[in-house]
Every structure is written in structure tokens, then in C-alpha cells.
């Protein structure tokens, strides 16, 4: 597979208030966001030219910054307009949108009170996270060694770059062992989520999903819970022990990028891509284009 590096593409990126040529959207190597992880981002998808739950993403983007102690210097309205501009400038009808905000270069130590907050928004085509054949059969997961930290240990509700350090390590380890992704427990040992998507289990036709009290309460997660209820499917949000997987029939992940991704296996334990998963996949594809 040929990789086209993300810093060497045609198109336009919105950076600090204006659209600039893609390859010019650079930051200095001495940027606080890079050295100290003072960086938050979003991941959104446009369907038919319209970003699904756009405003919720922008509001979470603002909230993520506040949780790291900084204020994103553009209003929700300005960012909403900027995202539309980026889609148009890059001719993206169906694609992914990536806003990112970071502390700049004025200070280069733990204390960074006087740093400027920078914002960029890019967009690119990204049909599905996994190839169709893999997605249809369901992906294979292995348990991660890292656990999601407690709210006393990290700003867990922020979509902060630093919280992804353990995700990338876990995902790489899983991929090297032939799996597609890793399933993370939380600090208490309850099932939490995958490295970039929330977890849903189906037990005897009812949905059980971990309570989002120490990881990102995904916008897709909330959408799926609402869609399930609309379809008369009972949803339980609760603490779930990994031992409970033995009585689970279906497993799927949800996220903006992952959409609904069925799971066929967790470390040798097998699941089917069953009716609940299929019903919600259809309902979600209809909802994002409604
Ligand atoms: N958890 C993590 C760690 C994620 O990166 C994502 C993707 N943003 C999600 C959950 C799902 O969130 P959403 O549905 O808002 O995309």
C-alpha cells in the first residue's frame, strides 16, 4: 500500500483564521503542543457535504481545550464556518474533518501561561476505517496492557492528544500480533473502550455498554444509544467486567471514524455479526445522511 504523507498533499488547510495551501500549514519544532502534549483535536465526518453532528464536535473541541486550561480563540460560529470553507476548498463531499488546537512557541517549559493558542482544520477523503471485507466479518481485538486512567489521574473527558499515547502503543502491539485493535480496561478493571472507539455488547437482544465515566463519551456512542432506543432495543449503561464476555453474542465499536465496526473476536472468544449490530448499522447509515 502506497502511503501519501499527510504533509505532502494538494489542497487547503484553515490555519489561525485563514485558508492556506496544504503544504504551508506548518508549525515550529519548538511548539508547546508537541513537547508537552498541550493539544486537543476533533475527528468528524461529512456525508453528502454535511458534517454529522458538526456543532456537537465544535462544542466538544472548545470543552477539550478548557479541560487542558486553555480557551480556543475562535467561537463555535467561526469554527463552523471554517469547517464548511475547508470542505468546499478541498471538494470534499464525503470525508473526514480534523480540527486541532495547540499551545504555541512563546514558552518552552511546563509553565506555558503566555503561549498563543493555534488552531488548524484539515479535511480528507477517508471512505472507511477498515476495508469492506474486514468490516463485514468483524475485526479481531486483543486486550491492551494499558488501562484507561481514572478522572483523578488525567482530564479524561478531553479529546486531548496526550491521552492517545497509550492508545497508539496498544494499537501497534495488537497489529503486530495480527489483530486489528486493542480493547482497554479502565483503572478499576472494567471494560472501557477500544483505542479510538467506544464499545457495545449485545446480550440476549439487549445492549450493554460501559458507563462513560473515565473515557470519551463518544458522539457516535450517544447517537447509537438513541437509535437503539428508537428501535425498541433496551440499553444498559453500566460497569461491565471482562468475565461477562462469555455471555455476549454480538460486539461492536462505535466512533466517528469507525462508524459501527462489528467485532468477531476478543482474544479467541468469538462473536457473531448479528441482528442488533446489522439493524443499528443500517439505522446509523440512514441517520448520518438524513
Ligand atoms: N474513544 C476514543 C478514545 C476516541 O478516539 C473516539 C473517537 N473520537 C471515540 C471514543 C468515539 O468518539 P466519537 O463517537 O465522538 O467519534
Structure description:
With 290 residues, the chain is α+β, with helices and mostly antiparallel strands. It has two domains: 12-125, Aminotransferase class 4, branched-chain amino acid transferase, N-terminal domain (D-amino Acid Aminotransferase, Chain A, domain 1, 2-Layer Sandwich), CATH 3.30.470.10; 132-288, D-amino Acid Aminotransferase, Chain A, domain 2 (Alpha-Beta Barrel), CATH 3.20.10.10. It is built from seven helices and 16 strands. Strands 8, 9, 10, 11, 12, 13, 14, 15 and 16 form a nine-stranded mixed beta sheet that branches. Strands 1, 2, 3, 4, 5, 6 and 7 form a seven-stranded antiparallel beta sheet that branches. Bound molecules: 4'-deoxy-4'-aminopyridoxal-5'-phosphate (PMP). 4'-deoxy-4'-aminopyridoxal-5'-phosphate (PMP) binds next to helix 6 and strand 14. 4'-deoxy-4'-aminopyridoxal-5'-phosphate binds at residues 43, 193, 196-198, 215-216, 218-221, 254-256.
